[in-house]
Amino acid sequence: MSTSTDWINRADKHVMKTYGRYPIVAQRGEGCRLWDVDGKSYLDFLAGVAVNNLGHCHPKVVAALREQAGKLLHCSNFYHIPLQIELAEWLCEQSFADRAFFCNSGAEANEAAMKLVRKHSREKYGEDRFEVITALASFHGRTIGTISATGQEKVKAGFTPLVPGFRYVPFGDPDAMRQAITPSICAIMLEPVQGEGGVNVPPPGYLKAVRDICDEFDLVLIYDEVQVGCGRTGTLWAYEQEGVAPDILTLAKALAGGPPIGAMLTTEELAKRLGPGSHGSTFGGNPLICSAALAAMQTMVDDGVLDNCRTMGNSLTGQLEQLKNKYTFIKEVRGRGLIIGMEMTIEGGALVHAAMERGLLINCTVGNVLRFLPPLIVSRAEIDEAITILDEVLATVEASGPC
């Protein structure tokens, strides 16, 4: 049987090195646990970067995939697909939206949203109104279009020229947003809570202020909930936290409980701008993936997962706050539900490695923010276990001084 070292050596020869991979070769997962090929167990508080919201291999998602795999894996979007129709109905019933477009990833969902707002504005106002305002520290994907929309320079390095038509303002500052409005602006795109940018939670009233700006200037409001949607913040959609609906909502990551899917939800008024031939996706909304998405989302709502997310989120946040009071290099704990960031005055990369060696998977974003994204089914015992490991790791820093 091949060991982790064997697999890593093979990867080094043929897999492109677009990721700074950790020395783990994953073999199987169940609930909040991940096992490598050497048999080592890890408590997974990264959850595939907010994908495995129901944990690894949730029985209802697996059952739906197995059943559908014996019927129809894929057909063309030239035909009607019953499971796609059911998923569109469910998502619209559970949100502000009237229509859904399906694709394969968050980046594709955001590309669809950007195409839609440009076409809408062109048809309504003419070709000079096409710019989109996004936030500094945002993250919207890895395509040329979505890195152009992203408010982080590090993801853009080496890929110029970028797609024109984006302006960036500080996140959480409605006055800066208002000052950025010009006659060329057609939309505003925001993450209701920024994930990759450091788990940044906006101040109360921010989303309402942005909604008011959009209404005043007839701008389209896009929420990118690729990471923070599908229950991650404790409500099905993050925008429900403040009761301020968008005109377009983009989803992916946890939507199918593990398999790849993206979706753009929008209103009837906007949806009519994209007619036959204007946009598409070969694999988007195929029967196999839609079966998983229906199972995952219905489980999220029907099985008490959102309640558990809120309860366990409060527990995890509270215990992280206790660590903040214990260690002077912890600056702030922030988040909603089970997307939580712990900002420090030191770099976090070494702490991620130390936690991994002890069997806890987390990650670090923007250099000094440890990010916690456990499955929404996580138990109090598993949170206690994670905190015990993290406390051990932080204690080594306190003893040796900042790394």
Notable traits:
single chain, alpha/beta, Aspartate Aminotransferase, domain 1, Aspartate Aminotransferase, domain 2, 2 domains, 13 helices, 15 strands, 38% helix, 17% strand
Q: What does this entry look like structurally?
A:
By secondary structure, this protein is an alpha/beta fold. It has two domains: 4-57 and 304-400, Aspartate Aminotransferase, domain 1, CATH 3.90.1150.10; 72-302, Aspartate Aminotransferase, domain 2, CATH 3.40.640.10. It is 38% helix and 17% strand. The protein contains 13 helices and 15 strands. Strands 4-10-9-8-7-5-6 form a seven-stranded mixed beta sheet, sandwiched between helices. Strands 1-2-3-13 form a four-stranded mixed beta sheet. Strand 5, helix 6 (144-149) and strand 6 (166-169) form a beta-alpha-beta unit. Helix 3 runs antiparallel to helix 10. The radius of gyration is 21 Å and the shape is globular.
Number of strands: 15
**Could you tell me the mean pLDDT?**
97
Indicate the CATH topology of the largest domain.
Answer: Aspartate Aminotransferase, domain 2
Distance between the termini: 38 Å
Shape-level CATH architecture of the largest domain: 3-Layer(aba) Sandwich
Structural class: alpha/beta
CATH class of the largest domain: Alpha Beta
What's the short story on this structure?
With 403 residues, the chain is an alpha/beta fold.
Which helices and strands occur, and which strands form pairs?
Elements: H1 4-14, E1 26-30, E2 33-36, E3 41-44, H2 47-50, H3 59-69, H4 82-93, E4 99-103, H5 106-125, E5 131-135, H6 144-149, E6 166-169, H7 174-179, E7 185-190, H8 206-217, E8 220-224, E9 248-251, E10 262-266, H9 268-271, H10 287-302, H11 305-326, E11 330-336, E12 339-344, H12 349-357, E13 360-361, E14 363-365, E15 369-372, H13 380-400
Parallel strand pairs: 3-13, 5-6, 5-7, 7-8, 8-9
Antiparallel strand pairs: 1-2, 2-3, 4-10, 9-10, 11-12, 12-15, 14-15
Helix pairs in contact: 3-10, 4-10, 11-13
